[in-house]
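Need the bound structure for magnesium ion, inputs here:
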Amino acid sequence: MTQLEVDSRAERIINTAADGFVGMDGGGVVTDWNRAAEDLFGYTKGEAVGRTVSELIMREQDRAAHEAGLRRFLDTGQARLVGRPVQVTARHREGREFPIDLTIWAQDEPGGVSLYAFLRDVSERVAATESAGQLAAIVMASSDAIISTDLDGTIRTWNPGAEQIYGYAAADMIGHSFARLVPADLSAQFEHILAQVAAGRRVEQLETVRLRADGTTVDVSLTISPVRDSAGTVLRLAYVGRDITAAKAVDRRLRETKDVLARQATEMEHRAFHDPLTGIANRALLMNRLGLALAQAGRVGTTITLLMIDVDDFKFVNDTLGHNIGDQLLCEIAERLGAIVRAGDTVARLGGDEFAVLAEQTSADHGQRLAQRIVDTLARPVEIGGRRIIPRASIGLAATDATHPVSPEEMLRNADLAMYAAKTAGKAHWCAFEPGMHHALTARVQLEADLRTALEAGQFAVHYQPICELASGRTRAVEALLRWQHPTLGPISPAEFIPLAEQTGLIVPIGAWVLAEACRQIARMPAVAGEITVSVNLSIRQLAEPGFIDIVTHALDQAGMPAHRLTLEVTESLLAGPDAAIAAQLRELRALGVKLAVDDFGTGHSSLGRLRNLPFTTLKIDKSFVDELTDTDTKDIIINAVVAMAHGMGLRVIAEGVETSAQLSQLRELGCDAVQGFLLNRPMPAADLRRHLTEQNTSAGEANRPDSVPSSAGRVAG
Ligand code: C2E
Ligand code: MG
Ligand code: MG
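Answer from helper R.:
Posting the output first, comments after.
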């Protein structure tokens, strides 16, 4: 090969090289400049040759140093640059600066020393190194745990964030398995994740728990990615773990708060629609269901029935037996009602002693049968706190009628009116609503209002009905009977207004007034009349009043009347609901010397045994028994037995409501002690009684024989 051939071959090689190639003389003047150098620096070979390298590619600030270095190189022959690339900053013709690797070597040639340089653009490498450095800085500064492991979980890198979160130093962890951080119960999950990532899938923000060096646990959110080589093969796993303990705690607290709130909301809703004592529906829920049922019944044309149930004498139970027993009674009633109705019917407590039953899709017939069934079921006695109580109730029934649509409120009011009617008609039964009841109620409400002012307005008077002793034919006692002269309605029967006074509690002041008035008037009867006893009727409500004994002693003191001249009458129904407080009250009265009579005997359910345990002195046989004494031979058996029994117990027997001479003679034969009735005397004002007693004492004994003198009967209106 000739030298020429060698040269041209070398030039070809140099020109196709990827690196820039520059030849220089000893002064740094360019003698050769290949294609790559043209591309690198933007000067053609023609432009470059003859100029110094320094001027062509060096930054101004580097030139002096470069030239000094070159001179030193040539002077000392130190081959500092030879064979070893140095990185310098070069400048493109257009001013752009970029890093290059410069490899330079010297060669002695005939014309002096020649310099040759290879120049390579290393921008990409430098950039990559820089960003790797930045990344490393980020990894070091991160508070997240940034870890890499082999595919089998052996830890390769461990940053300060990991130290912080897991509590292990890098030295303790590198080379060990990541499994050390995984709680036993999560190891299966961990193995699964390892396999997933090793297979090339990324796991994002997995919330899990890891063990710390001190044995505590830490909540972490993990993102695990496969790290691949350029061929795509997974080499390692990269973990980024974030401590989410605090966030979790907040989360947990939030969840707990939400749970509590949800529970409270449910409770509040339940409370809003249920009776706290019995747990059954309350008025709001009843009205709600009633509204829906009425709307539906209107569309479909079915009948719905609403029953209003009011416990009879509940206040009495509450006042005398205590609220605890009262509450238990209400629960018992709620339970019994619930057991009777069909599924889908609503049993509600409207407050106090008021309940309601809403029966949907009924017939008029079914509603009435249900009402009767409730009356019967409630009347079964119940044992509460060792006491036998018969929880009777009055029931009002209202049913829908296709021709008269009603609102829920109207329906409730109708049932309420019917319940009132049931109560007024004598309790413990049911009554169906009738349109006329509205009027009756208005009248009743008016009467109640009038009753409140009657006492102050002086509209009351006490009349006296003589009680005639059969042995002597003389009036030795009278019964005080209250009269109300209503300003517009005229005289009103106590049978009508006493129950009203009892329900409203007005009986307490009214009763006290009767007691005082009766004592006062009877004490003032003329001495000729002898010692007259006065019987005053009592309501249960009065007896249940704690200060009642004081009221009695006060009335006696004011009148100057000895206690033995006063008899207090209590109805037999009082004995049906036995109560220690009432019994104690009766005993105390008896101890004062006051006499006690059982009124209307035979109408209630009192047991004779009960009677024996209470300090009664007198028994009054109810008029209904006396009425039966028309047939001389047959109907006297009961009275006979009652008289015998009463006498056996040391009680005086008085027969009430004697209207015929036949009754009178029979009662005499049966051994009654005294009689009272229209046959002899109607109740009369005090002035008439005074006359009656005076006449009795001044006229002959024969004229006053009760069987011969119905003469005064009818003289005084009752
Ligand atoms: P009671 O205590 O059984 O009184 C007897 C009732 O029978 C009286 O009715 C009396 O007028 C009536 N009576 C008496 N003899 C005859 C008769 O031969 N035939 C008929 N048909 N009736 C007769 P009155 O005065 O209308 O009183 C009714 C009820 O009102 C009383 O029944 C009593 O339970 C109650 N009452 C009256 N005054 C008071 C009172 O001051 N306080 C209380 N708590 N209740 C009273
Ligand atoms: Mg009486
Ligand atoms: Mg009576």
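Comments: The chain is about 45% helix and 25% strand. The radius of gyration is 58 Å.
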